[in-house]
Amino acid sequence: EIVLTQSPATLSLSPGERATLSCRASQSIRNSLAWYQQKPGQAPRLLIFDVSNRASGIPPRFSASGSGTDFTLTISSLEPEDFAVYYCQQRSNWPRALTFGGGTKVEIK
Amino acid sequence: QVQLQQWGAGLLKPSETLSLTCAVYGESLTGFYWSWIRQTPGRGLEWIGEVIHTGDANYRPSLKSRVTISVDTSKNQFSLSLNSVTAADTAVYYCARGRDELYYWGQGTLVTVSS
Predict the structure, then answer these.
(1) In this structure, is the dihedral angle defined by the CA atoms of residues A19, B94, B69 and B24, taken in order, positive or negative?
(2) How do residues B13-37 score in pLDDT, each as one tens digit?
(3) B107 vs A43, A50, A55: nearest CB
(4) In Å, how far is A71's CA from the nearest CA of chain B?
């Protein structure tokens, strides 16, 4: 099973600052990597799919990149509503499974 | 607009069967994969399994012996059944649509297993 490790666990930043979140896979994965944002009491919300494609309605301050085992989500300038927990997720075919990283909490400094 | 609305019993005793249903509005079940995911503070987000409109399903290996995900195309709904629950199955359960990524999510249901 592929394991996704996110770092840091917590990121303390101020509004307007740049956030860089990391997701590392235990082995090389295809381009099937997604990022989600979750706020307390809510379901996760898809931000990015296929490594770097923004989902519908996601503002351009969210961008993502990566390949192989190392992937990054960047929020160029934090807005107050961006303080949340972010998860990466990948899909594997053999065996068929979706796995999630442990999450990075972006909190207000 | 696609909406997923889920429901089911929120409090179970050990050894009982967890049953949740997710209704899909604004889109047909046909042609998409439909998943169940659960979330706990300790284990984070865990994919439980998925089903497609034909009824073909895939499950998380560690849960495979206890889980069934089924689909009812006439009602545009899909369901989760998890038997022989224990306290370790206490979690918020979500339904969602997607194959490689999960685009639409239900609101979540807290299921507590306690004697």
Answers:
(1) negative
(2) 999 999 999 999 999 999 899 999 9
(3) A43
(4) 16
